[in-house]
Design a protein that fits this description.
CATH class of the largest domain: Alpha Beta
Number of strands: 14
Shape: globular
Number of helices: 15
Order of helices and strands: EHHEHEHEEEEHEHEHEHEHHHEEHEHHH
Strand order of the largest sheet: 2-1-3-11-4
Helix content: 25-40%
CATH topology of the largest domain: D-Maltodextrin-Binding Protein, domain 2
CATH superfamily of the largest domain: Periplasmic binding protein-like II
Radius of gyration: 19 Å
Length: about 325
């Protein structure tokens, strides 16, 4: 079965199929490099090995994933943790079942600027994401609130813009700094005109971001399919972690990463960009206690920022029982 969903990024639309007897399951994913395991599971045939008929639908944003979930178009989603608990606070009680990645975000500035630390952001203009989004929670709650000890919109002006505009805006001096993620960070650093002043994965090693989420109906009606998806997901993560180069060609192709030319004329291929990005981005499939604690911190920041109206507990949001069965 193949069909086009409104708002889907066509470049990321991949479909895995199986025999007529295979169990059908629909998986939505945010089109981001950090969600590479879902691509690997499809391309390497890991879903088929589990006798699954998987329909993969890629989306350009979390809100579009939510629309599809509410409409009953999806069973599972590869998505950031903050959207899940934001939705949960508003009545969409999906659960977090497994981890997808760690790391990916950093604060950058121009290589020739005097902004070399978070303290230097005071009085600066900074490129950020839409206020209230998941990455905005990380920026305002963690980067500014916990680490920089600065008040967003007072000490620093945050200018919301699409991720693709952040690097160019930084280079053209529209902004003084940018809150970026991979592979955009590596692309601009390799060009020699951007520097990283704060890498979140260094400060919070292996912090979770993208996760696998399921709707209550799927958990009730398709438990075996969920376990099979998690088995395929684990195999994909294991493959990616088998070497620094594993899957880089698949990722570079899927995200259309073009060559980058460094200041000395060195040309870096798309696969080299991926390899560099993996210095601050990686993949894990199992949620450990540290991951759960970080997600709780995210929820607390969202509450303190006024993005959710009540305090939530990870006990309500996280179900690790399916992952436990996937390794039995």
């Amino acid at each position: 079965m193949k069909r086009l969903y409104a708002g889907i990024c066509a470049a990321g639309l991949l479909f895995g199929g199986g025999a007529a007897a295979a169990e059908e399951i629909r998986i939505g994913w945010v089109y981001a490099m950090a969600n590479a395991p879902v691509l690997i599971a499809d391309k390497q045939g890991y879903f088929k090995e589990q006798d699954l008929d998987v329909e993969l639908l890629s989306f350009t944003s979390g809100p579009l994933v939510k629309q599809a979930m509410v409409a009953g178009e999806l069973d599972l989603a590869y998505i950031g943790a903050p959207p899940i608990y934001h939705w949960y606070s508003r009545g969409l009680e999906s659960k977090i079942l497994a981890k997808v990645n760690y790391g990916q975000a950093a604060v950058t500035s121009r290589a020739d600027s005097n902004i070399n630390s978070l303290a230097d952001l005071k009085g600066a203009k900074m490129a950020g994401v839409r206020k209230g989004s998941g990455m905005d929670v990380l920026l305002r709650g963690y980067v500014f609130g916990e680490k920089a000890k600065l008040t967003p919109d007072k000490d620093t002006q945050i200018i919301s813009m699409p991720s693709g505009n952040m690097g160019p805006s930084l280079q053209s001096k529209v902004v003084d700094a940018a809150f970026m993620w991979e592979p955009f960070i590596s692309q601009f650093v390799l060009r020699g005109n951007t520097k990283v002043i704060f890498d979140i994965n260094e400060a919070e090693p292996r912090y979770p971001w993208y996760v696998i989420s399921a709707l209550p109906d799927t958990m009730k009606n398709k438990p075996d399919a969920i376990i099979k998806v998690l088995k395929a997901h684990k195999k994909a993560v294991d493959f990616l972690n088998s070497s620094d180069d594993a899957g880089n060609d698949i990722i570079a192709s899927a995200f259309r990463l073009s060559e980058v030319t460094g200041p000395d004329g060195t040309v870096y291929s798309g696969t080299e960009v991926v390899k560099r990005a993996r210095s601050r981005l990686g993949w894990e499939w199992s949620l450990n206690d540290n991951d759960v604690a970080f997600i709780q911190r995210l929820m607390n920041w969202s509450y303190d920022l006024g993005y959710i109206k009540k305090r939530l507990s990870t006990d309500d949001l996280i179900d690790r029982s399916f992952a436990a069965k996937a390794i039995q």
